[in-house]
Automatic annotation (TrEMBL):
<dbReference type="GO" id="GO:0005829">
    <property type="term" value="C:cytosol"/>
</dbReference>
<protein>
    <recommendedName>
        <fullName>3,4-dihydroxy-2-butanone-4-phosphate synthase</fullName>
        <ecNumber>4.1.99.12</ecNumber>
    </recommendedName>
</protein>
<dbReference type="GO" id="GO:0046872">
    <property type="term" value="F:metal ion binding"/>
</dbReference>
<dbReference type="Pfam" id="PF00925">
    <property type="entry name" value="GTP_cyclohydro2"/>
</dbReference>
<comment type="pathway">
    <text>Cofactor biosynthesis; riboflavin biosynthesis; 2-hydroxy-3-oxobutyl phosphate from D-ribulose 5-phosphate: step 1/1.</text>
</comment>
<dbReference type="InterPro" id="IPR032677">
    <property type="entry name" value="GTP_cyclohydro_II"/>
</dbReference>
<dbReference type="InterPro" id="IPR036144">
    <property type="entry name" value="RibA-like_sf"/>
</dbReference>
<keyword id="KW-0479">Metal-binding</keyword>
<keyword id="KW-0686">Riboflavin biosynthesis</keyword>
<dbReference type="GO" id="GO:0008686">
    <property type="term" value="F:3,4-dihydroxy-2-butanone-4-phosphate synthase activity"/>
</dbReference>
<feature type="domain" description="GTP cyclohydrolase II">
    <location>
        <begin position="90"/>
        <end position="242"/>
    </location>
</feature>
<dbReference type="GO" id="GO:0009231">
    <property type="term" value="P:riboflavin biosynthetic process"/>
</dbReference>
Length: 271
């Protein structure tokens, strides 16, 4: 079986048992398959490069309980507080503040009923805090557009009726903090033109310090049993423990796309 991208086919025999569904773009196809020895069902909608890295990450990390998928096998976490809010363009949501895990606090913004839906997936984005992008709309990264696009066009989309934004405070600069992120920017902009990863290493950090356990624990607490994850980051895919029904690439507004079959699954309709 293969995953198609740009007319090329990448062999994934033995990793995905896939059945293609209708695709509206030339870039991505949707696939449903079994993955990992624990039997977590994953249907991916992903570019081939993402699929290959994701499968590597997921296969390497998945080794714990039968409920668990990925590295986030931490169990539930009770929120410290919760309130009902109304957001412009989204409507009424519940906001949960969870305790810090692995130096990250998950703020869950939940629309509608997301608990125990019998395998009907809900749209979820795991968003790493980025002050300059999220708040000030820096052009250096895509964080701001990705955040607003999900909030307005997915969570606020009445087609969905439900979903969750899992915002991770403490993930600034891939987990190195804002001050160090600014130092990393200086190295990236300097004469050596270091990559973000190399700059973080130069500063004494790992290329990516983030853990997604706090997001996994929030999904456990919310009793979400299936998600469509909006991300282009395979570490986020590997990091949550809830079954993933699909992955929708979410790297920029231009790449925003979702297959009609995935939309139908989100709505609970047969495909
Ligand atoms: Zn950013």
């Amino acid at each position: 079986m293969h995953v198609a991208s740009h007319g090329a086919f990448w062999p994934l025999d033995g990793l995905i048992t896939a059945a293609p569904v209708r695709c509206r773009t030339q870039v991505f196809n949707a696939y449903r398959g079994q993955h990992c020895q624990h039997g977590s069902a994953i249907a991916g909608v992903m570019a081939a490069s993402l699929a290959r890295e994701f499968l590597f990450q997921a296969g390497r990390l998945c080794s714990r309980s039968t409920r668990c998928f990925g590295s986030g096998c931490t169990g539930s976490a009770e929120p410290e507080s919760m309130a009902t809010e109304t957001f412009r363009g989204v409507g009424e949501v519940r906001v949960f503040a969870y305790p810090v895990q692995d130096r990250a606090r998950c703020i869950a913004v939940v629309r509608g009923n997301v608990s125990r839906l019998g395998g009907v997936p809900i749209p979820v984005r795991i968003h790493s805090e980025c002050l300059l992008g999220d708040v000030f709309d820096s052009t250096r990264c895509q964080c701001g557009p990705q955040l607003r696009d999900f909030m307005l066009n997915v969570l606020g989309n009445d087609e969905h009726r439900n979903g969750a934004m899992l915002y991770l405070q403490g993930h600034e600069g891939k987990g190195i903090g804002l001050s160090n992120k600014l130092r990393s920017y200086v190295l990236q902009d300097g004469s050596e033109r270091l990559s973000e990863e190399d700059a973080n290493i130069r500063l004494g950090f790992a290329p990516d310090e983030r853990s997604f356990r706090a997001a996994a624990a929030a999904l456990e607490h919310l009793e979400v049993d299936s998600v469509v994850l909006y991300t282009d980051n395979p570490r986020k895919v590997a990091g949550i423990s809830t079954a993933i029904a699909a992955v929708v690439p979410w790297s920029s507004r231009e790449q925003r796309w979702i297959d009609e079959a995935v939309w139908a699954r989100i709505r609970g309709q047969p495909t």
